Amino acid sequence: MEDTEEQPRASSKRCTTNNTTKTKTFRGRAKGSNTTTTTTNANTNTTDQKNQHIQYHYHHYNHHDNNYQNRQLLQYSTNHQLFNSGVHGGGFFNQTQQQQQQQHSFHYYPLLPFPPPPSIPLHPALSPPFPHSYNTFLSKTHFQDLAFKHLNNNNNSASSAFQNTPAVVGNGIPSGTVVREVEDRRKTLPFKGSDERKVMGCSDNKQALVVVARRPDSGGVEGSVITLLANHFLVKFDSSQRIYHYNVDISPNPTSKELARMIKQKLVKENSALLSNAHPSYDGRKNLYSPVEFQNDRLEIYISLPIPSGSKSLHLQPLGEINNIDALGEKHLKLFRVNIKLVSKLQGKDLSCYLSKEGDDCVPLPQDYLHALDVVLRESPAEKCIPVGRSLYSSSMGGGRDIGGGAVGLRGFFQSLRPTQQGLGLNVDFSVTAFHESIGVIPYLQKRMDFLRDLPQRKSRTLSGEERKEVGRALRNLRVFVCHRETVQKYRVYGLTDESTGDLCFADRDGKILRVVDYFNDQYGIDIQFRNLPCLQISRSRPCYLPMELCMICEGQKFMGKLSDDQTAKILKMGCQRPRERKSIIDEVMQGSVGPTSGNQGKEFKLQVSREMTRLKGRILQPPKLKLGNGGHIKDLVPSRHDRQWNLLDGHVYEGTRIERWALMSFGGTPEQKSNIPKFITQLSHRCEKLGIYLNKTPTTTPQFESAQVLNSVSLLESKLKNIQRSAAGGNLQLLICLMEKKHKGYADLKRIAETSVGVVTQCCLYTNLTKLSSQFLANIALKINAKVGGCTVALYNSLPSQIPRLLHIDEPVIFMGADVTHPHPFDDSSPSVAAVVGSMNWPAANKYMSRMRSQTHRQEIIHDLGTMVKELLDEFYQEVSKLPKRIIFFRDGVSETQFHKVLREELQAIKDACYKFPCYTPLITFAVVQKRHHTRFFFPSETEDDLKNQFFDENIPPGTVVDTVVTHPKEFDFYLCSHWGVKGTSRPTHYHVLWDENQFTSDELQKLVYNLCFTFVRCTKPVSLVPPVYYAHLAAYRGRLYIDRSESSSGSGCNGRDPFSAVSRASPPVKTAPLPKLSDNVSKVMFYC
Question: Where is this region: Disordered (predicted)?
């Protein structure tokens, strides 16, 4: 059956009226048959009759096709047009009246809000005629479908005009009125199954390139076994359960998911017969899933929803209040047309086959069925919480907490349905995030902007150009509502007006020029106080203004900007729970009234969700033996402490450097702070000596003191840095130590200029740290300096070839590469993304790395210039080792599961292309994705009351804990490794997912390799949570981001050379991405980003 075109039709529409005295029906038959017609009489007043010059034409069509013969359609047509504005919701509008309305009342004016437009009941001419008894549905026979796009060409169609009849109107179209039912297409819609498969990697798929690596064994066996609990909850489903997927189209488009869910709730409540008594699940957008098939494949239903007045939010309003029409008043009804169309019929057998161990490896994950089940389990929580991505937040989980700067922290939980070795697992985790505080815009700016703290006391205050940009940046894309009149309409802030509120004028309906302040004074009796502040611009394309003091921030908006250090600390503190507390919160979610088991949707779809965490076996890998420098008393050690940390009190770094030529610059600082500099130099030099690092006790030149204002001027800063480079060591300075009074945005310019224009590595310190000068602080600074100048902290005593002799050999070098992409902040819609790739440059130690960075298209995740960067790193490797690597172990960060195939297909090919540029060079490649942003956590089980009191139960899992069964992928090669000790909160293991493995690692070999590498990170004396190549790539990408952010703002280009905060529409990404500044040759060969 073909889809029909959208036409102004009402072949089965109904309406009611309060003064209808007699109701009759129209019945339509095929051409040539007897046709019975009746009219509907209504008592209407004189005014209504003047506005209701409507002629109804009933056409009878015969339509023949291969599937249906003699199909009948009763079409209702008028000379009206369907008016789909958000004001009227939906209805029919007389053409003459529409033109009159457009001339007098539907112009757009450069001022919002005007007095609220008339709400339902609509004008009588706007209401389509429906029988009064709207709960009695006509037989499906009278509403059979027709491909409307063929109607215009149907020469056999007959029509007959009926006498002019005034429209029967009342107080609006009743909620739940079905206006169109369509012949179902059960026989024409096949179930999704094997016939539709397109499997990556299968031989019958011509476009397939690669297959994700399969698990090489049943899991690793090395290490001591421990019992753990994972925050995965087993979900059992009936593989015979069919799920019917419907597309939902609501007109006018709901302004929020909350409103869409309200419409769905009322639709289900009042149309249970049409929905086969099902309780479908809805994602708040376009997708509706039902466990049974509806009576018809296409439905068109009108829902009139009472919208409460005033500033009360629609958010999470109980259904009982929604339907309380008497309490809210019918004058606030709003009409929505809901079109429901069957899209597909999903079967669970494919998912069951995918999860089974005996299943075919070529069977792809049935994402559609899995997504449907995920929507089902999110249905109840989404109705009670604020959804943000895959997390849901509720004040019932401890309430909000003020974190300052106009933001509040809210607690919630994350949930996601995942395929695992045990079957479907529901991953549930505790979550905390920041939301904008729902207060007035003026108080919000007081909290957000330090320079506006005294705004109420200085109402005549104006904004400078820079202040105006900061205010625009803070308010951009926020949703607000007005408090000077009753409305629930929300507006999005697109920018600020160029003129102040007192100077802003607009033309009224008669063309008269009015001042904004005069309008609000005359219309609402409001005297605008902050007349020198700009208005909010709330339209993309038209000048629509709102004074700031009349606006409130809407609740439930995630804080998308960058949090301050203080805000970040408070959010981290809110989310920093020890394992016992975190486990308790997750258990409460699963048992509570807002969690995924709180509703009845699971039962509707035959789902059984366990309320107990998954019990599994993990393994603790042994730490490697480490090698230190020859000059110390201790030359090797095994990290035997429970946290696997070691110290260098009696040992030297593995490779210490000699720093003969260095200088010191000071930016700001009090005289007292500056007086600590000689002591700092002496103690730092002494600490370096103890670590086996030589730092000349006397800087090449005397310390240079500059004002902190120098950091605000790029040209002046560059001049100062070049001058000290020339004067200090004849242009051959090894290190520049920079002391700062406080954190400064000029830090980015300092790094960029020093590493690109000047050619010297820098180490920055805050004066506040110089007052303590603890041994730990000095050691940390010394390790970073040593790495930046070319040294390394530690090496593995037993080299990697000796630990993995089956694959690795001394004479066959291996390169370890890491890659990451960093993107601009969410509200930046034009800045480039930055990709970084690092590679190890020594073998078999594999503890020194070089980096390459590139800018690329805005928010592009695939690394565009990966082949070139890999080629350059291979060239550098050849220069250092005199051989090209036999194997490439490539770790990729920042890739979500939905991008696995795309990243593997494109980036693996880029790596291979780079290798092809060397003659006869085909190394074996392993490509693994590294994920930290996941929500799997592991806990120790509590068997008895004594366990609950035991301190060990509240400890984190130890370093070296690996899990590769039960909650991992059912077929693919992945594992969780917690390589670090969690000092605060609950440890988050790193998830390693191997996408491609030509080296054919076993589980034990790869897990041991990754864990051992985590001990070689140069900045600390403990194993880190992330494999070092990825850690370094992340640091390098962040450094490239600093280059872009400050170079753009310093040059005044902003967003493509325009002011992004007065613009009406969002900017488009630039066509050509500006390249990063080129690193100095001597800087590019060291780990300057550490």
Answer: 1-46, 1048-1072
